[in-house]
Amino acid sequence: MSTRMTVRTTLVAATAVALSAALAGPALAAPAGNDDHGPTRQAVQAVVKDGVPGVTLTAKDGRNVWSTTAGVGDLKTGKPRSADDRYRVGSITKTFVATVVLQLEAEGRLSLDDSVDKWLPGLVRGNGHDGRKVTLRQLLNHTSGIYNYTADETFGRTYFLKDGFFEHRYDTQEPEELVAIAMAHKPDFAPGTSWNYSNTNYVLAGLVIEKATGRPYGEEIRRRIIKPLELDGTSVPGTRVTVPQPSSRAYSKLAETATGPTYDVTKLNPSLAFSAGEMISDSADLNRFYSALLRGRLLPPKQLKQMKTTVTDETFPNTGYGLGLMDHKLSCGVHVWGHGGGIHGSVSEAVTTADGRHSLAFNLNGDWSGDTQAVIEAEFCGK
């Protein structure tokens, strides 16, 4: 698979909030002049002009909530996208997972310095991988060195290219099988010596939650986050292949290039992502979640500080990766915290200022084009 295809359609996912720079001071207020959201509206329309079928977006600044849509949610009927659309959020799932792990730490049920092997004995072994030398913290901030299973060529052909996808879209993958794919490769580096985004890290984190609690990780997310925050549009689908209504269709090229036919990929078994990226949500819920997280409603101060302690990678300027949470410095000096996510036919972003006051979440129902970074810049910088 090409690098472009891997970034655009795997769970590593089209995250324009990507990764690099560490904390550089408090978030600044969005500049005046964006009260009518004109720049944001223009950026959303530009995404559709770039070829994405449709976009749905909701912003919240204090008590003011604003939504816009552009393009279509269904290429066959021409039905427009809705501000209430539910969609697959891909790797935004990682922030939910990391939050639960940190809650368990706050309860004294595990430590971020525990080895993976303590909770999942013998699972991380092979070709130089050794779970005895990898900590839970290194899973959450992607410094484990564990190979990313979605980068495996056979997995890519099976689930991200046309022939394989239509043959296997409804297959159920067990999380242990996903880990085994990674174990067939050598580690990217020795634990703690570098940084590389790996979906395997969060499959393992989900399994640790299950081992520590005795319950499915999705049940813990529902009990600890979804229900308390009343996130009615948010779900952990497991093996359910459909997206609840209201929702739009999701489209992909299912090819190594961004040209060629467009395919409806709405229905799929999200077990191929498990706790690295299977969740479904909507823009209002994502804004509520990230605002609550940054305001300290979900984690004690100690755990939130750990979550916001970032590592950087020179490949991604102006961004740092914490524990399932990214800090991105925009061109106007504003810092936004959040995560991006991509899975077949769906590219999403959710970010908020450090005080939780100004939040933005949006989704593209096509995975091959569209400048998501420009949309974020437009909302928070007014350009």
TrEMBL record:
Signal peptide as annotated in the record: 1-29
InterPro entries: AmpC-like (IPR050491), Beta-lactam-related (IPR001466), Beta-lactam/transpept-like (IPR012338), TAT_signal (IPR006311)
Xref: Gene3D superfamilies: DD-peptidase/beta-lactamase superfamily
Pfam families given in the database record: Beta-lactamase (PF00144)
Residues of the Beta-lactamase-related domain: 42-347
Keywords associated with the record: Signal
High-level lineage: Bacteria, Bacillati, Actinomycetota, Actinomycetes, Kitasatosporales
UniProt protein name: Alkaline d-peptidase
Organism of provenance: Streptomyces lincolnensis
